[in-house]
Amino acid sequence: MHTVLTGHRLRRTGAGLGLALALAAGGVLGTGGAAFAGTATEASLSFSGDAGDYISGGGSYSYATASNDRLNVSGSTDHSHVNVSVDGANGDWWYLDLAAPAGQELQAGTYTGATRYPFNESAEPGLSLDGNGRGCNTLTGSFTITDIAFAPDGSVQDLDATYEQHCEGGSAALRGEVHVASPEPPPALDLGLGVAVDGTASALNGKASVHGTVTCTKPVDVTVSGKVTQVKKHVLIRGDFTGSVNCTPGAPVSWTAQADPTGTTPFQRGDVQVDATASATDPDYGSASSVDQTAVVHLVKG
Which residues on neighbouring strands pair with residue 298, listed in sequence order? Predict the structure, then answer.
């Protein structure tokens, strides 16, 4: 007994990003804000089946961005699952799923004993090629990945794989391959943070002024925040600070901030502990980047 699919099925991505890169001739279309968008250099999916194979009907199929077919590629955040969907220029539609056993990342190698994704048991790889109104209720198969790479946002950067599946335990096989190649994505944002070892304690308002530098690998607005802690005559003095600077790659950029004591005791001359964090949003991926630094700072009267 076979599964008949009516229309484009709803995709379950599990722990996926909920985004796809639409690899079409001439470019990549992204449906998620965190996706890296660039120009696809190659994307193709092809398969053929034995005479008794239900999915292929014994025929051969081939799709490529160079032929104006659309291939959408998505990867799960834990790199355990890849989905490739095809919207053919001729109206065909297909879905390919490749998944590692639970708790593992997809990597180069051969995965045997695969069963139908997403119903594969935790110790089994997952596999499914279906579409054009046809699907397997159960299947067995295997797939071999010769190359796979993920961009910093988790999207699929490169993929070269072959696969074989058998519907309903039959001997007739469907065999195919998939190739995805994209230009190198930009690196993730990297921040650096320095805290100067000198500062001031204001005799006027009791605030502690601290300063330092930040570095960045991309132009971003960086927020520097943290806490100043001092102990004087068995009294604990604390205060939070925050500031922001516009950072550009190259030379370190200076930051300054003031910590207002939370109690009635002002900051005083002497050593304090400064716990600082620099944070910013990666402009290419929309993800947060941060770095922490702790330093002993000597305050003088200011």
Answer: 198, 271
Please, what sign has the CA dihedral across residues 35, 37, 38, 42?
A: positive
- How many residues in total does the chain contain? 302
- For residue range 44-54, what is the model confidence (pLDDT) as tens digits? 999 999 999 99
| Global pTM value | 0.66
* CATH code, residues 191-301: 2.60.40.3930
Q: Where are the domains of the chain?
A: 3-181, 191-301
Which residue, 150, 155, 106, is CA-closest to 286?
155
Closest by CA to 5, choosing from 45, 54, 53, 50, is 54
Residue with tokens 């790479």: 149
Quick one: pLDDT at residue 123?
96
Quick one: which of 11, 37, 34 has its CA closest to 26? 37
Phi, psi of 104 (to 5 degrees): -120, 155
